[in-house]
Amino acid sequence: MDDALLGFLHARYEEDNHAYAEVAHRFGGDALLDSHLPMLDLVDALAREYEGMTAGDARRAGVGYALRVLAQAYYEHPSYREEWRL
Fold first, then answer.
1. Structural contact between residues 63 and 50, judged by C-beta atoms closer than 8 angstroms
2. 3-state class (DSSP) for residue 2
3. Is the dihedral of CA 5, 48, 50, 74 positive or negative?
4. CA distances from 39 to 29, 55, 83 (A)
5. Counting runs of H as helices and runs of E as strands, what totals does the chain give?
6. Closest CA to 45 of 22, 75, 67, 23
7. Which of 10, 22, 60, 66 has the least CB density, counted as fewest CB within 10 Å?
8. Which long-range contacts (CB under 8 A, 24 or more apart) does 61-70 make?
9. What's this model's pTM, rounded to 2 decimal places?
10. Which pLDDT does position 83 carry in this prediction?
11. What's the pLDDT score for residue 30?
C-alpha cells in the first residue's frame, strides 16, 4: 500500500468529521445518533495502526487489503485513484 492511499483516507476522515461537526452545531448532538461517525473513527484507527506496522508484521497484508476495500466507499471523490480499486 502506498502513502498516497493512507493520506487519502486521513483526508476523508478529516473532511467527514468536519461535516459531522457542522451537523451537530446546526442541529444538536442528537442528529448524530445514527451517523457513521463511530465507523470513521475505526477506519482512521486502522489506518494509523497500519502505519505503525513493520514490513514483517503478519497482519500487514490483511489490514492493507481492508483499507483498500474501505477506501472504495470514496471512489467518486476526485482524488480517488483507480489503481486503489480491487
1. yes
2. coil
3. negative
4. 17, 26, 24
5. 3, 0
6. 67
7. 22
8. 64/1, 67/1, 67/5, 67/6, 67/9, 67/43, 68/1, 68/5, 70/9, 70/43, 70/46
9. 0.85
10. 94
11. 86
